Inverse folding.
């Protein structure tokens, strides 16, 4: 069972893991360095809260996203290592570790404080409306996956 990211203890546990990261920490798999990984995770929150910067997929891609990708992203199975990332979420430029880390912690704290009730009425551009379980799975699973990538 996936832990509930909206629970303050679980959010604190995730933040404690983030605080274990070091600027030069090496990934166990994947291409991103640790600062890029943090920036990559922040893009998810940007897509949730600043949707004007996130393009809605064309009708064909929207169908593919809802039918094929949504169950993977919002389901209970862990992500596979070296999985394909949507182009919008790819980070290749250098990022500031400290800034991205602070931003991610703030995003987690804000989301936990506001609770899932703030997210339930929202429609994601890629998946449409999500249930409480889907929001939780998507957020927790993604962060956990990348923290495991950096062995924390």
């Amino acid at each position: 069972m996936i832990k509930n990211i909206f629970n303050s203890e679980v959010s604190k546990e995730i933040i404690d893991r983030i605080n274990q990261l070091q600027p030069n920490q090496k990934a166990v798999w994947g291409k991103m360095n640790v600062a890029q990984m943090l920036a990559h995770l922040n893009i998810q929150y940007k897509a949730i809260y600043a949707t004007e910067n996130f393009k809605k997929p064309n009708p064909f891609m929207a169908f593919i996203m809802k039918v094929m990708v949504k169950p993977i992203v919002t389901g209970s199975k862990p992500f596979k290592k070296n999985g394909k990332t949507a182009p919008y979420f790819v980070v290749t430029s250098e990022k500031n570790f400290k800034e991205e880390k602070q931003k991610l912690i703030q995003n987690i704290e804000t989301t936990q404080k506001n609770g899932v009730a703030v997210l339930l009425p929202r429609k994601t551009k890629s998946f449409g409306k999500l249930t409480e379980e889907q929001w939780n799975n998507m957020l927790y699973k993604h962060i956990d996956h990348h923290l495991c990538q950096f062995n924390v």
